[in-house]
TrEMBL record:
Gene3D superfamilies given in the database record: YVTN repeat-like/Quinoprotein amine dehydrogenase
Gene Ontology molecular-function annotations: 6-phosphogluconolactonase activity
Cleaved signal peptide residues: 1-21
Family: Belongs to the cycloisomerase 2 family.
Entry keyword set: Signal
Domain of life (superkingdom): Eukaryota
Cross-referenced InterPro entries: Cycloisomerase_2, Lactonase_7-beta_prop, WD40/YVTN_repeat-like_dom_sf
Full protein name: WGS project CABT00000000 data, contig 2.2
Length: 408
């Protein structure tokens, strides 16, 4: 491994034993009705390389990864198998070798149907909360022993569909779980119900109480969100998949609940813009580490929204790209459009920033590609697509640097 030889070289010069290679992990659905993949991508000196593309290690439809020390928790939506995602999903505790070339399963647990997102919470972050899209639910797990996670509590929600609702809003679809800055509350956007569900969590027992629900406009379909703590207060932002909007609220803390006061609602692409909501599907929302920028990804644009770029896998030939949309967060919690930048291909279901905010990874489902973009941490602008790799046979839906990895 270059990772090892680099580290050895560094040791020879008497410097700290951190390798300059970093590891990225990605989850992918399969192009066909077969098991999906969890992949390791090595990033060294501006180059990306797939060093492991492991099929079936997280079942049929891996959708999300959570890094816990040497472990990787992976959710399986199981939507291409029977019984399908509405009734049962799975949580895998996987162990990665240090060089990332192999994953092994420590434990597989059944989960609520169609799990799609996790967040760590509680004392010493020993809790793992899970959003279940297919089953319209919320669950907490105890991961004190990372090899043997155990379920703590589970809830499934019922909603009354609004007249005129599309099929996707016929039932509850919890799409994301987000821990608030105090660690006492988890917010969970419910795309089916046009709601943000707020849970008060017990940091010791990892149990919870559903405290309040915050409504979003009819047929908006809230998908992913984030809390931001500024000097002027705490704010919550959500991107809506069905109406392609960003909504911002000021958060007011009560003893056992949160209240949200809406401060703005804006189209994802900027003031006075409009996309065809039948086709275009906003997906991810990420806040920069300095809390100064809010970025969203937009999927499956019509031709007017697509950007022509050189193919980042080969640097030869032109391809079409969906956008990432970059907003500057103002002191009062409102947002101002700053930049629209190519995601590196079509269907950026997920993207992530590294810890210092200098790199952005995008998971491009339709193109089977993971792309890496440079970001100027001072200006907040995305500046250059550095490179990209193909996940052979896969439809990547999540990609993130595992930054505690040391190869030495
Ligand atoms: C969580 O589990 C505890 C212990 O079994 C139980 O007392 C509590 O009612 C559960 N809460 C929910 C929201 O299911
Ligand atoms: C939006 O897209 C749908 C599906 O292609 C199409 O039927 C509809 O006419 C489009 N609407 C507008 C306003 O272009
Ligand atoms: C950031 O990008 C926007 C959009 O391209 C551009 O107008 C602006 O000048 C850039 N800011 C800096 C500081 O480069």
């Amino acid at each position: 491994m270059l990772c090892n030889s680099l580290a050895a070289g560094v040791i020879a010069f008497g410097l700290p034993t951190f390798a300059s290679a970093s590891l990225i992990f990605a989850s992918s659905y399969n192009l066909d009705a077969a098991d999906g993949f969890v992949s390791t991508i090595k990033y060294t000196d501006g180059k990306l390389e797939v060093i492991n593309n492991q099929q079936g290690i997280c079942g049929a439809n891996p959708s999300w990864l959570e890094f816990v020390g040497d472990h990787i928790y992976c959710l399986d939506e199981i939507w291409n198998k029977k019984p399908n995602s509405d009734s049962v999903g799975a949580l895998y505790a996987l162990k990665a070798t240090r060089d990332g070339t192999k994953l092994t399963e420590s434990k597989r647990l059944e989960a609520l149907g169609g799990p799609v997102s996790t967040v760590r919470f509680g004392q010493r972050l020993k809790g793992l909360a899970v959003a279940a899209y297919g089953g319209g639910g919320f669950q907490t797990f105890d991961i004190s022993n990372p090899d043997a996670p155990q379920v703590v509590n589970s809830s499934s929600f019922t909603i009354t569909p609004k007249p005129g609702a599309i099929a996707q809003q016929g039932v509850s679809h919890v799409h994301h779980v987000i821990l608030d800055p105090t660690g006492d509350f988890i917010a969970a956007p419910d795309l089916g119900g046009d709601l943000i569900r707020i849970f008060k969590v017990d940091k010791k027992t990892l149990e919870y109480v559903e405290s309040t629900t915050i409504p979003t406009p009819d047929f908006s379909g809230p998908r992913h969100g984030a809390f931001v703590k500024l000097e002027s207060g705490t704010y919550f932002y959500v991107v809506t998949e069905l109406s392609n909007e960003i909504i911002g609220w000021k958060v007011n803390y009560k003893a056992d609940s949160l209240e949200f006061d809406q401060i703005f609602i804006a189209p994802t692409h900027g003031p006075d813009t409009k996309v065809n909501n039948t086709i275009v599907k906003a997906a991810e929302l990420i806040i920069s580490p300095d809390n100064k920028f809010l970025l969203v990804s937009s999927r499956l644009e019509e031709s007017a929204g697509q950007i022509d770029i050189p193919n980042p896998e080969t640097n030869a030939g032109q391809i079409k790209s969906d956008p990432l949309i970059n907003w500057a967060i103002q002191a009062d919690g409102t947002i101002k459009l700053q930049q629209i930048f190519p995601a590196g291909g079509i269907n950026p279901r997920h993207f992530s920033l590294n810890k210092d905010g200098s790199l952005v990874l995008t998971a491009l489902v339709t193109d089977g590609r993971v792309a890496l973009i440079e970001r100027n941490v001072q200006t907040g602008n995305l500046t250059k697509i550095v490179g990209a790799v193909k996940i052979i046979g896969g439809q990547p839906n999540f990609a993130k640097f595992k930054e505690d990895t040391k190869c030495a």
